Amino acid sequence: PFQILFTRRSTVVVYFRRGRGTLNSFILILVEGMFQTDNLSSVLVFLVLLFGLKQAPLFSTAAAIIKSGGGKQQQFVTLANPAPGAPFHHAFPVHDLDLAKDFYQNVLGCVEGRSSTKWQDFSLYGHQIVAHWVGNEYRCQDYYNPVDGDEVPVPHFGLALTVDQWKELAQRVTDAGIQFIVQPHLRFEGMPGEQYTMFFKDPSGNNLEFKAMTTPENLFAKYNVPETDGNNNEEEGASSSTEESTEEEEL
């Protein structure tokens, strides 16, 4: 419900979180004279009187955070929560950090985390991705592999979303005028791995895939997928047809 933004000897800045992921109000508490951060009992009394007894446990936690800072200034704010379980971490190269920030925030809806002059953390649906500036000449080198009739660019990364999340993101990318490498569509239709998918690039040419399983529990279903050519024909079947045609011509 709240978090210490930063502390100084005579100032405590607290924000209260109302609603998931939103910052509705900032409260600046000036602690002067007897209300010094090294006199935490006075600070707690002041806060309890101001906000009510029910908040006392929260302010005790805040006091512990202040005290652990050892009087040093702490400046941070957390604007996103980690994904449940074990969030993944992925670092990738970019040629322009400002372009990367604009794309990942304004197109993909990422939230900023830590940063320096040469890298930027983002929360991608609660997972940590980091854009690293590696030089103005960088562009991703592409390789391609056929998957269910599509030429899929490799390497690529992304997320397995819910169907609703996937549809919302597909619309956002479309509205932003981003060119798709593989248009949003349903692949492996009727198979255990049936899924919605789309591919596109970031400004540095890094390939992104976002998918959504129609049956989420089948994400790791183990079975052999027939290889297909660009026309959604099974390669073995196409080869057999060619052989039969050649035999007929010889006859």
UniProtKB/TrEMBL annotation:
Any Pfam family matching the protein: Glyoxalase
Annotated spans, Disordered: 222-251
Highest taxon of source: Eukaryota
SUPFAM superfamilies according to UniProt: Glyoxalase/Bleomycin resistance protein/Dihydroxybiphenyl dioxygenase
CDD domains: VOC_like
InterPro entries xrefs: Glyas_Bleomycin-R_OHBP_Dase, Glyas_Fos-R_dOase_dom, VOC_core
Every VOC domain range: 86-213
Protein name: VOC domain-containing protein
Species assigned in the record: Heterosigma akashiwo (Chromophytic alga)
